[in-house]
Design a protein that fits this description.
Chain A: It holds the Pfam family tRNA_int_end_N2. The complex is a heterodimer of chains A (405) and B (293). By secondary structure, chain A is of the alpha+beta class. Helix content of chain A is 26%, strand content 10%. In chain A, helix 12 links the parallel strand 9 and strand 10. Chain B is elongated. The chains are: A alpha+beta (405), B alpha+beta (293). The interface between A and B is large, with 37 and 40 residues.
Chain lengths: 405, 293
């Protein structure tokens, strides 16, 4: 109790009044002793210690606690607190390792300790898609796509069968050229007419006229002899041909109008096969998780959680001190009286804030600011109601998770 | 009984709770000017009574109040406390309306008066010292006489009388709880509480319940305005928790349910009191949570 200054021992007003009430101290003012009524009227006021604060002070002192006025400057800084703490703060993380056993979220033995700040390890979102495997089917593209935009027969076939389609051909051909040049396969013309029809004069520049083309001298230059194969070779050929699938039979391939589109088609097919379809991974919004990678249910739930749990000290340093709510007293445990030293009081039991039932309940900003000011010591609200005092404290609470790997 | 409640409100029990005048409750003593005045000392804007007879008088009027100070005989416990007595604002206003209140304050005295007081105090101290000296000597002699052997007694009594000295530091002094001497009346009004409509409503309810003989204390712990006892709180448990609601106030149903559940948990009935405007009576509705049928 009390403090010494200028070589003298001083008592704080609430301490003096308490000792007067216990009958241990007689206070003189101008050579006359003060009665307790005088003490109440002189020592207690809203500027020094209010009546409610003295009620709480007296209540705690009668129970045996050591009660000091709160001194914000004597609070150890967070760095100093870190050095003195016996248990590490960052040992527990919310990210559960698959190999470890259950990590408890609150492993303190003291019931009053406010849980420490939990460091969340940032999940690395797989934003970058894996590099697509290069298409190995470029070599297959030796054959030119034989289908033109008309999707019909090539223009050099002028059978009677195709004559009724000539009108449609003419209509379709009147559309703009799509950049596809189809060359006739002379070797396959064996069964057909021996000459190629002349091209459409509208396609020719200027006043060029081209007659029919005689195919015979060209066919003579092509080796059209049948390959002599044994029965086994023929069987093998048949089997391979059965397995070989003409790439041009694919509808999508026929729709490709140039090599770039064909490459895109091949790439998207490859992507889908490898599990990274481009419509998912190449856009602005990509999936949260690559489904081919293994992930535990708990981690997945963490990824999709929208509301992240927060801590009471988050954003607390930015709040400025309010006048309405401030810590009044520092309370130390009664059984430490024997080991209590003013120079080394030890860790306080609680910090007291005093209010009344007629006043407002502390809002979140006040609680944050008080917790920040108090450090790791719990804050107790002493609510005074005429003669009774009730003690309340707010405890941090983490919602339980039911999912474990 | 009028209907201050809006439709859809809980069931109105129009007869007020039965007033049992038995159990030692004091009869209603209306304001009479012949009441002995009580001296209120304002400490940090809280009304305190310091003198024992005034505290007893307040109790006889049915005002319970709350004791704040340490009990002089056993100061280091919280079960029984001593003076001063803190009055509720309604109790203070009640005493003020009775005319039984005088506010006192400490005022500065002149130099000569102060010197006179100092001289008086020192004279009292000296007289007390002399008395105590005599009593101490008697005490020691009685201790010697209690011893059995006869011859030593006379000799020891003589040496005792010759060499006895009573130290000043052994003097017992009295630490007064209340201020001694004449009270200095303060110039200001007896009660300086701010009058708000809510405070007026509470006071009306307080008056009405006091008139019916109930004892009232503060009920902040129970989420209400008053705790209503059928008799002296030292002899009874509280029966009701009173919540004062103004007639024009809309109360959300969730508040009513929370208050009713709280009351049922502590085995008290919740009573909603709403005073009629301009004097008149008070309408009471009690809520009891009966659970699912």
């Amino acid at each position: 109790m009390g403090f010494s200054a200028n070589g003298k021992q001083y008592l704080l007003p609430e301490e003096a009044l308490y000792l007067m009430e216990c009958g241990n101290v007689q206070v003189f003012y101008q050579d006359l002793p003060l009665s307790i009524q005088d003490g109440f009227e002189c020592f207690l006021s809203s500027s020094s210690v209010s009546l409610q604060q003295y009620q709480v002070f007296g209540h705690l002192k009668r129970l045996g606690y050591v009660v000091h006025r709160f001194d914000a400057s004597s609070q150890p800084s967070s760095y100093a607190r870190q050095l003195n703490l016996p248990q590490s703060r960052g040992a527990r993380s919310l990210k559960r390792k698959r190999s470890d056993s259950l990590v408890p979220t609150c492993s303190h033995s003291e019931a009053h300790k406010v849980p420490d700040v939990k460091r969340r390890q940032a999940e690395e979102d797989p934003t970058l898609p894996e590099s697509r495997p290069t298409s190995s089917q470029d070599t297959l593209g030796a054959q030119s796509p034989s289908a033109d935009s008309n999707g019909g027969r090539p223009w050099w076939i002028t059978d009677a069968v195709a004559s009724h389609q000539s009108h449609e051909h003419a209509c379709r051909r009147s559309l703009c050229w799509d950049g596809v040049i189809v060359f006739p396969d002379v070797a396959s013309l064996r069964g057909h007419s021996s000459c190629l029809a002349s091209p459409d004069p509208s396609l020719l520049p200027g006043g060029l006229t081209v007659g029919e083309c005689d195919v015979k001298p060209w066919t003579r230059r092509i080796n059209q002899r049948e390959v002599k194969m044994s029965a086994k070779d023929r069987e093998r050929e048949r089997r391979e041909h059965r397995r070989k699938w003409d790439v041009n039979r694919d509808e999508k391939v026929r729709q490709c109008r140039n090599w770039a589109e064909y490459h895109q088609l091949l790439a998207s097919r490859q992507g889908r096969r490898s599990g990274r379809p481009e419509h998912l991974w190449q856009r602005e919004v990509t999936p949260l998780h690559d489904h081919t990678q293994p992930i535990s249910t708990g981690e997945l739930l963490d990824k999709i959680s929208v509301i992240k749990s927060t801590h009471v000290l988050e954003g607390a340093s930015r709040l400025k001190a309010s006048e309405e709510w401030r810590i009044c007293f520092t309370v130390y445990q009664p059984d430490t009286v024997a080991t209590f030293k003013k120079s080394n009081p030890g860790k306080p039991f609680a910090h007291m804030c005093i209010c009344s039932f007629t006043g407002p309940v502390p809002d979140l900003a006040a609680i944050k600011q008080l917790s920040f000011q108090s450090g790791d010591v719990q804050i107790v609200f002493a609510v005074v109601d005429a003669g009774d005092i009730s003690f309340y404290t707010f405890k941090d609470f983490q919602l339980p998770t039911d999912v474990y790997p | 009984v009028g209907g201050p409640w809006l439709p859809g409100d809980p069931h109105l029990l129009s007869p007020p709770p039965a007033c049992n005048n038995g159990g030692g409750s004091s009869p209603w003593r209306g304001p009479r000017k012949s009441e002995p005045t009580m001296h209120i000392s304002q400490c940090d804007s809280a009304p305190l009574l310091w003198h024992t007879d005034e505290v007893a008088a307040a109790r006889s009027l049915g005002l319970v109040g709350a004791l704040l100070g340490s009990l002089p005989r056993t100061p280091r416990q919280n079960v029984r406390l001593g003076r001063p007595l803190l009055l509720l604002p309604e109790e203070e206003r009640f005493l003020g309306d009775c005319g039984a209140l005088t506010a006192i304050s400490q005022s500065d005295v002149g130099v000569r008066e102060h010197a006179r007081q100092v001289a008086l105090y020192e004279e009292t101290l000296e007289r007390s010292y002399q008395e105590q000296q005599v009593l101490a000597l008697q005490d020691r002699k009685a201790a010697v006489l209690r011893v059995d052997c006869e011859e030593d007694k006379r000799r020891r009594l003589e040496t005792l009388e010759r060499h006895f000295s009573f130290q000043r530091s052994a003097l017992m002094v009295q630490l007064n709880t209340a201020r001694v001497g004449p009270a200095h009346l303060s110039a200001g009004p007896a009660s300086c509480a701010i009058r708000t409509p809510a405070a007026d409503a509470k006071y009306q309810v307080f008056l009405d319940l006091r008139r019916r003989g109930f004892y009232l204390t503060s009920a902040g712990k129970f989420g209400g305005d008053f705790l209503v006892y059928p008799g002296d709180p030292l002899r009874f448990h509280a029966h009701f928790i009173c919540v004062c609601v103004r007639a024009d106030e809309r109360v959300p149903l969730s508040d009513l349910l929370a208050a009713a559940r709280l009351g049922s948990n502590v085995k008290k009935t919740l009573v909603l009191c709403s005073p009629h405007c301009h004097g008149g009576g008070v309408t009471y509705s009690s809520l009891q949570w009966s659970g699912m049928i």
